[in-house]
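Give me the fold.
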Amino acid sequence: MTIKLIVGLANPGKEYTYTRHNAGAWFVNKLAKHNRFYLKENLKFHGYTAKINILNNDIHLLVPTTFINLSGKAVAALSSFYHIQPNEILIAHDELNLAPNVVKLKLGGSNGGHNGLKDIQKNLSNNPKFYRLRIGIGHPGDKNKVINFVLSKPSIHEKILIDNAIDKAVNYTNIIFREGIDRAMTSMYNN
């Protein structure tokens, strides 16, 4: 089993580009750039797409142009067209329960109230198990402040920490294709 689709969750529009909720898109764009590719808008798949090759593995990249809570439409369209199974998909997303300098990889699990993950689960199948790259953005400390928090820009210090974590995640992507996803998960948890 290998990853065939990597999705970066985000909200569309310039006003959201630098907000915490777009951390998944920051990762996918950095991964594309690292592999000397740029994403281009693809209306058929409701998002920006690219196809990259890492260690002889073809991987589709996707950043949906739907709002984050409707991400499932784009993921389902691309995965269905290319016959990609849920366990061959990696969803990169912002994670309130991790500090801004932390990134973790996991299979399945609860959506933790993340509306983008909820919609993907709903659109793929009954209880689909896909991989998740959880990019820490921290928590505002009060659940009533979460919506404003994820839709606002991180401080300069937090952005540096998030960018460092994303850089680590890009490096771990090579481990996924060189040594397997289980090895990459173990390496992330040991760092």
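The two ends are 24 Å apart (CA to CA).
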